[in-house]
Amino acid sequence: MVPGGAALLLLLFGCLVLSRGEVAPEAGAPKEGAPQLTEAEEQGCPVCMWRKHSKEMRLESIKSQILSKLRLKEAPNITREVVNQLLPKAPPLQQILDLHDFQGDSFQHDDYLEEDEYHATTETVISMAQETDPVVQIEGNPHCCSFNFSPKIMFTKVVKAQLWVYLRPVQQPATVYLQILRLKPVTEDVSRHIRIRSLKIDLNSRVGHWQSIDFKHVLQNWFKQPQSNWGIEINAFDPNGNDLAVTSLGPGAEGLHPFMELRVLENNKRSRRNLGLDCDEHSTESRCCRYPLTVDFEAFGWDWIIAHKRYKANYCSGQCEYMFMQKYPHTHLVQQANPRGSAGPCCTPTKMSPINMLYFNDKQQIIYGKIPGMVVDRCGCS
Q1: Between 2.10.90.10, 3.40.50.1450, 2.60.40.10, 3.40.50.300, what CATH number should domain 4-26+42-77+269-381 receive?
Q2: What is the largest CA-CA distance in the chain?
Q3: Is 28 exposed, middle or buried (0-12, 13-18, 19+ CB in 10 A)?
Q4: Which pLDDT tens digit goes with each residue over 141-174?
Q5: Fewer CB near the last or first residue (10 Å), C or N of the chain?
Q6: Which residue range or ranges hold the TGF-beta family profile domain (predicted)?
């Protein structure tokens, strides 16, 4: 015969493993840094012990869910040093950081849910310039700029596309002629690249200047005909013939490389409402309840996540008493049919919301988008 307290823990453990498809971490020694309970505390407060396990398993689940929803097999191997080197010091990135709230709780609409409740949706993509293919180079030039995009992005609707180029400072007012050439493989018959954009810019500042160029039409053509995307060459000549465009991908130009900013549209939603209890860590509530939990990505060692470094995830824990069976007729019928083989209703999330995230993917591209189902908004018995 299993003691009453142990039976309760086994029942709740089964609920947690089965709820929302979350997989429990492997059995064994407790996680490093996890709060430990003494034998007396475990015997005197089985709910406290269960709450501790619920929190640990929620953290493990969040790590695996983020990688899965971003379609990453493992966390990108990007250190803080690499982040500092690749992160562009440019207006679009700062606007994202300033204007967007990355906390999932900022979604105040109780009926808001993504239709695809699992995979992340992308809103903004920042693609960094890369070296061009040798077949388009003439005597080793140009080294810049090639932009690669995933098939997923190429099949979305492009709302806006901007090419950003950093221009070196001028000592006195000058007119700069910026041109963009479409690259193509060099052959004996074709040795010139094709000019696709030309822009006259008046500069009067002794500090550098980020210039944006509308690139939506060119990008749409690239997406329709990917084989035509061999990259571009960027020049910005002042009256003395000096090229002010920073296109070097070598040392000394960190954060000033050209990049492409895309805004794409994915807008599928459906509605759902639910209610539940909210508790804090000092609560004596034994019923199913939502508890606060802050996830710290820096503690995970995930430097590839740019913002936010932390977010409020929350978790569910507590008992689902049999006295509430009338609320769950389907579960009650199952319980009546097989009273020994059913664990009864489980305390699980009944409403979840997304988080906004700015991060590097495994191709060292900066992505801004939503990851659905990462914040527990409501808990209930189901």
Answers
A1: 2.10.90.10
A2: 92
A3: exposed
A4: 888 899 988 888 888 888 899 999 999 988 888 8
A5: N
A6: 270-382
